[in-house]
Fold:
Amino acid sequence: MITHHNASLMHAQYYAGLLLRADQLYDQGGAHLEDGLRIFDDNWKNIEIGQKWSAKSADFDEAAASLSSEFPERGARCLYLRQKPAERIAWLEVALRVAHLRGLELVEGVLHGKIGVALSEMGDYKKAIEHYSIRLELAEKLNDLEGLGEGACNLGILYDSQDMLEPAQECYQYALYVAAKISDSKITEKTTGNLGLVYLKLGENARAMECFEQHLRLALQNGDQWSEGNALTNLGIACLKLQNYDQASVYFHESILINKKLGDLDGEAKNLGYIGTILGATGDLDGAVFTFQERIALANKLKDGRGEAIGCWNLGEILVRQKKYRLGLDFLYKCIEYEKSVGDPAWEDDLKAVRTIEKTNGNTEG
Structure:
């Protein structure tokens, strides 16, 4: 007779297998990528149930402990696309505990790196650095060159997000050195794109474009459509900075096609924001309003407070340009309320700017 425990174990094992299959197909790229995501989406609820049961049973069942440590890696690519950072961390922390108890230092290093990425995406840079440091220490101890390259790249992303461009550039250059040493095109692909973003901030637009074009070539070569979309977006940003609006629009729209294919709502929302900026810059204010409204709706669906606030600010500015002052000011204030709630120092300058608009136009109908 099959017990409830055994039935739950069999259920978890089956859906862990489907998760692995989905990720393998995704990793093959091309037409297989969509098949992988379809398997993942169709079985997502049961995958969640299997992981949750494994995590709860890990302390008293070795098979469940093994599964709980394997779930995040079995579906790494699909999970990154579908889970929010906090959800990824919950799965990864369970796996990390099991790996630590079993003395699997190489696995521990990988998991610390993934937790650091998720924390960095959430803006918790202090904790992210702690995990990145452990990732790099273990990689050095174990002579894990792939871990050193990947860890250095992720640390560079963290520095870049805080506008610490010199250490970010040093991290990226070291990651590229390691990637060349072990012929790792994936690390090269990711690092090259991120190095381009540093050059863009430094105003070295030609070097940035070279990086983004190489990133796109490598993404196409590796069959990584998510990365391809990211490269297209970065090329669009570079063209936007150069006020080459037509070419920028082409890149953003090509990227959105990939976002839609992958169900990447976050990427789609960001691309809509850039397209709205182009429409505003070229005088299509009605088009910009519609596009920013779409951007806000997607951010709201994703429960992305920061993305929604940015969309509100952009929409508010366009509405003010249309002389719809009251409505525009409402959206601008929504952004400021969010900035103040999360301790973003930009709220004070933004408040001054809005009050100037209000003082000048506040009594105007609209």
